[in-house]
Write a structure and sequence with these properties.
- Helices cover 32% and strands 26% of the residues.
- The longest helix has 19 residues.
- By secondary structure, it is of the alpha+beta class.
Length: 281
C-alpha cells in the first residue's frame, strides 16, 4: 500500500506552505496538490460478502469449511487467488487473516457522497493493519465505484503505524486553506438535504466561509475507533477543508472548521489510545 498524505493547516494571517497570502488577496488553489493525493493500494479485490466471510473466519466466528460450503464464495476465492486448486488458503490470504487475528483494536469509517455509501475497515495490531476498503472519497468524487453499487472491496495489509495515514488518505484529507473561525450552525434537515444533493441552497444568512464550504463537493465521513467508541463526524469540503460536525441540544448541526493537521493528529491519537486500551494483540 502507498497511502500518500501531506497534512496542511492554516490559521488567519501569514503565508502558507503552498505560497500565497492568507491575509488578504487570493490564496493559491491547492487543488493541484490534492489531486496527487489519495488512497492507493495494490491489494486484491473481493466482493463485500466474501471479504466479510474471510474476516469472520479469521476471528473464529466460523471456519473456512463453512465459508467454502457456499459454492459461489468458493469459486470467488479460487478465481481471485485466495485459495489454491485444493481449496487451501494461499500464503497471502493466511497473512491477511493473521493480521486480523492479531489485531489489538479496530477502526471503521462510513462515508457518503450524494447518496452513495462506502466504508473502510481496519484491524490494527502491534505490527500490522489489515484493511478492507470500499470506494475511497476521491474515487466517489471522480464518479467511480468499486463494483456495481460499490459491491467490491479491496484488501491490504499495512504497518500498524500506517493506520491513521490509511484512514486519512482514504477519507481525502489533504492540503486546504482552512482559516480558524467559530462554528457555524445549520438546521439538521437542511444539512441532511445538502449531503444528498449538492444543489441544495445554503442556509439563510450564511457568511462567506460557509458559502465557500457549501459550494464545494462533499464527502461526509464518520469514524469509529476502538472499543471505547471514539466517534467523530467530518465533512470533507475539498479545497475549503474539513469540518467537524455534531448535533446541538436543539437538534441543529454545528460545523466547525478543522485544519488538516488537527484531523490527522485526532486520528493518530485515537488509534494509539485504542491500541493501548483494547488489548495487547
Amino acid at each position: 500500500m502507498s497511502a500518500v498524505l501531506q497534512p496542511e493547516f492554516q490559521s488567519n494571517g501569514g503565508t502558507g506552505r503552498l505560497g500565497g497570502a492568507l491575509d488578504g488577496g487570493v490564496p493559491e488553489d491547492p487543488a493541484g496538490l490534492a489531486d496527487g493525493q489519495g488512497y492507493f493500494s495494490t491489494g486484491p479485490w473481493l466482493s463485500a460478502e466474501a471479504a466479510s466471510v474471510l474476516v469472520n473466519s479469521a476471528q473464529h466466528r466460523f471456519g473456512k469449511a463453512a465459508a467454502l460450503r457456499r459454492p459461489h464464495l468458493a469459486r470467488e476465492f479460487s478465481s481471485w487467488g485466495f485459495t489454491d486448486s485444493r481449496g487451501v488458503y494461499t500464503a497471502d490470504t493466511r497473512f491477511f487473516r493473521h493480521a486480523v487475528q492479531r489485531a489489538q483494536t479496530t477502526a471503521r469509517i462510513d462515508g457518503w457522497h450524494q447518496g452513495k455509501r462506502t466504508s473502510l475497515q481496519l484491524w490494527v495490531g502491534r505490527r500490522w493493519t489489515a484493511v478492507v476498503a470500499g470506494s475511497s472519497a476521491r474515487a466517489l468524487l471522480l464518479g467511480y465505484e468499486s463494483g456495481a453499487g460499490g459491491s467490491m472491496v479491496q484488501l491490504d495489509v499495512a504497518g500498524a503505524e500506517d493506520a491513521a495515514s490509511t484512514m486519512a488518505a482514504w477519507a481525502g484529507l489533504g492540503p486546504a486553506w482552512t482559516a480558524a473561525a467559530p462554528a457555524r450552525k445549520v438546521p439538521r434537515p437542511h444539512f441532511e438535504r445538502r449531503i444528498l444533493d449538492p444543489r441544495t441552497p445554503p442556509p439563510e444568512g450564511a457568511d462567506a466561509q460557509l458559502l465557500r464550504m457549501w459550494g464545494e463537493p462533499w464527502f461526509v465521513w464518520v469514524v469509529t475507533i476502538g472499543a471505547g467508541r471514539f466517534r467523530r463526524g467530518f465533512v470533507n469540503a475539498g479545497a475549503a477543508g474539513h469540518y467537524l460536525f455534531g448535533l446541538n441540544n436543539d437538534g441543529g448541526v454545528q460545523l466547525a472548521p478543522q485544519s488538516s493537521s488537527l484531523v490527522w493528529h485526532t486520528l493518530r491519537d485515537a488509534v494509539e489510545d485504542a491500541r493501548f486500551q483494547d488489548g495487547p494483540g
